[in-house]
Amino acid sequence: MTRTRTAAKLSTLLVSIGLLSALVAGCGADTSADISGGFQDRGRQLFNAKCGTCHVMEQAASQGVQGPNLDTAFAAAREAGMDEDTIKGIVRYQIEHPRPSVQGYPGISMPADIVTGNDLQDVAAYVARYAGVPGVKPPVAPGEGQGAQIYADQGCGSCHTFAAAQSAGVLGPDLDEVLPGMSRAKVEEAIVDPNATKAKGYENAVMPDRYSSLPPQELEQLIDFLVGPGSSGNGG
Ligand code: HEC
Ligand code: HEC
User: Fold this and answer.
1) What would you report as the CA-atom Rg of the chain, rounded to the nearest whole angstrom?
2) What is the mean pLDDT of residues 115-133?
């Protein structure tokens, strides 16, 4: 009996040591297959789906303002020589143990453990690579024409799934599902005056209303990208 228990204790200890070294290794090691910052970068996709709704970050073209701008948050540290691994550790720690909201973000707290495991590694690696890097830009957009770039640069993809743009946001409706049923005029209205009609099932969700300031030509190019050039759209 005693021997079994000792053996059990020993193996528990070994497991903890194993876990610990895995954790330590995880802190430094780059586990991410792709931190190219491209549209296939899993860390970037996860960031846009889970973090970009609350945080601005230039490389992600994300637009959320409930939390601090992550470029601003890390620019000074980076300039002072903080390396990517250290930043990655800070981001991981913040995701696992979010600080309660500070002044400036009253009433909004960052939820804990929005991503875990490999997803956590990928998001942290992505943020550590790009947040606050001077001159960083979102990747050149996939998809046809200038409208694709406008879609990417305006951060539409941080909230919407749209296959042609390889975006996977989930805060707003899936554009592959809803656009085929919308007229060109309805699409335009949804962009420049999002509060005029709320998409079904998203009555309480917020689409930013600042796109009314898009120059008319850009708005046209964006809608061309969404519903096809010159098309009047389907569904009346
Ligand atoms: C519901 C909104 C919300 C979501 C979603 C969210 N955050 Fe936050 N985040 C906040 C708020 C609010 C703060 C400020 C809290 C504080 O620092 O006291 C914050 C702070 C941070 C900070 C610290 C910034 C600094 O100034 O030191 C980092 C890093 C961060 N978030 C990364 C992420 C990442 C990565 C994700 C996605 C996995 C994420 N956040 C998702 C709201 C959010
Ligand atoms: C911060 C998140 C967010 C961003 C960024 C965003 N949207 Fe939305 N969008 C939403 C939400 C939420 C809705 C549903 C509520 C509503 O209809 O206003 C929506 C609705 C829409 C609809 C109407 C869908 C329907 O079924 O009626 C279209 C079209 C659309 N968005 C396109 C865009 C385009 C194009 C951009 C970029 C210029 C964009 N959105 C940026 C969140 C966002």
Assistant:
1) 22
2) 96
